[in-house]
Amino acid sequence: xxxxxxxxxxxxxxxxxxxxxxxxxxxxxxxxxxxxxxxxxxxxxxxxxxxxxxxxxxxxxxxxxxxxxxxxxxxxxxxxxxxxxxxxxxxxxxxxxxxxxxxxxxxxxxxxxxxxxxxxxxxxxxxxxxxxxxxxxxxxxxxxxxxxxxxxxxxxxxxxxxxxxxxxxxxxxxxxxxxxxxxxxxxxxx
Length: 190
Known about the structure:
The protein has one helix spanning 13-64; strands spanning 68-72, 94-99, 114-119, 127-130, 138-141, 153-158, 168-174, 181-189. The strands form two sheets. A four-stranded antiparallel beta sheet has the order 3-2-1-5, covered by helices on one side. The chain is α+β, with helices and mostly antiparallel strands.
């Protein structure tokens, strides 16, 4: 009599438990690191976008001979209706850059004044705080490339996760006559 042995393949219960333990350890280490990378990248991206917006406004003001404005905006997503919010504290919702063609101190997409828009994700925890109250709503460059408020413009960009999270604050500063500079403040965490 010949006996057929059926060979079974697969994992044993012990092997599966070891695999799950390894996956758990790797996840416990990797997920917080991934979150830190995402938050850090969001900080850098936002700081660079705001700095480039200020550079664009300055260069367009000089090139076109008109005032150019970088201002906070809350209605960027409304097609054809983007305007300056003219409200303090809206920078973390987004901003627009444009040429003030009619001289009213506001950018109106419907008048063809809009050059560029940056809309922030609604779920962001980032905070963008002007370093000078003169820039709570906008930064305006004259046709000379100088800031019309007669003061240094600047913004502090923080992660929104608190100082204990350890993310360095990003700072944008522009002298009255100069272009904006971006720095990473390693002392101040936010």
